[in-house]
Specification:
single chain; Rossmann fold; 10-stranded mixed β-sheet; two-stranded antiparallel sheet; 9 helices
Length: 323
């Protein structure tokens, strides 16, 4: 077991230790003044009032959008430290990366998912207000986080994309616990949308950061999206969990095996450009946002570096979407 954990940690560190000759990043525009975070209210198609905090980028069409999804009974506030680090990457992180351009600000969204934080009000067809309590949620309510909540966020990001403020084609989802299951399920939904000849739709999610996902969270079953070939093969994935919880670790290791099958570790000299699956599995009981925000493990900087290497330095085409 210790040998396996050591190999897992070594693989995750390949991202920051490997050197490379060929560079494929897009040139980012000269940095300007970084816009301040903004609070927005979104209305889902089923009438839920969602509260988000948006951290605008100053990188224009090259800005990487990152959506942060909290765990059950949490709020978007727990994602604030990572959001701030993604929005304004610390210059010292560049010393851990292969040579390249300065890291650009990410266009970050933190959201209170329905029934959580400031997203507890919905309006029915008659205009009456209904209060949402996550403790009373059923399977359909969690599915609606995927179907409606994330679609509302996507619509917001799509408008920003068409204003040239970000590149929706570089979308990254980061989730802890319940949020990881929501992210994984939405990625499969996004890649299942059939492409159109007239305009791009779907296949925007290019990277996932899954922190302590569950085999099943109240009906959001990880095995279902993991059966979908685009999720198995086409996404860059950073997978993190604490091995101190034996039950959760076993569930996570089952998911890891699926990704490992389709993401072999490349030769060391090609790792910086080719490696697209990473595992961070320290020996700790900490999970989810507790693991993310613990200064003992520096997971947040690892995520910032992952986003830089797998999205910031890869030139995914920018396209204006017409609705």
């Amino acid at each position: 077991m210790l040998h396996r954990v050591s190999m897992i940690l070594a693989a995750s560190l390949t991202l920051v230790l490997a050197s490379f000759a060929a560079r494929t990043w897009a040139q980012t525009p000269p940095p300007g003044r970084l816009p301040a975070p903004e609070v927005h209210s979104l209305t889902t198609k089923d009438g839920v009032q969602l509260k988000i905090t948006y951290y605008p980028s100053n990188a224009g069409e090259q800005a990487v959008p990152v959506v942060l999804l909290h765990d059950f009974n949490e709020t978007r506030a727990v994602m604030e430290p990572l959001a701030e680090m993604l929005h304004n990457p610390p210059p010292e992180l560049a010393g851990d990366l292969p040579p390249g351009p300065p890291m650009a600000a990410r266009a970050v969204v933190t959201i209170d998912l329905r029934g959580h934080g400031e997203s507890k009000t919905a309006f029915d067809d008659a205009g009456g207000a209904v209060e949402l309590d996550a403790s009373e949620f059923k399977l359909g309510d969690y599915q609606d986080m995927v179907i409606y909540d994330l679609e509302a966020v996507r619509a917001f990001l799509l408008a920003e994309n068409d204003q040239g403020r970000l590149n929706l084609n570089k979308l990254c989802l980061v989730g802890t616990g319940m949020g990881a299951n929501v992210a994984l399920t939405y990625a499969a939904r996004d890649w299942a949308i059939p492409p159109l000849a007239a305009r791009k739709q779907g296949q925007d999610v290019k990277a996932l950061v899954l922190i302590s996902p569950r085999k099943s969270f109240n009906g959001l079953v990880a095995a279902e999206p993991l059966k979908f070939p685009p999720v198995q093969q086409d996404l860059s994935v950073y997978f993190a969990y604490g091995t101190g919880d034996a039950k959760l670790a076993k569930e996570c290791e089952t998911m890891v095996k699926v990704f490992e099958k389709y993401h072999p570790v490349p030769p060391r000299e090609q790792a910086a450009t080719q490696q697209d699956f990473f595992i961070f599995a320290p020996a700790t009981q900490r999970q989810g946002s507790d693991l993310l925000n613990s200064q003992d493990f520096a997971l947040a900087p690892r995520i910032v570096e992952f986003v830089e290497m797998r999205l910031g330095r890869i030139d995914y085409p920018f396209t204006v979407r017409k609705r």
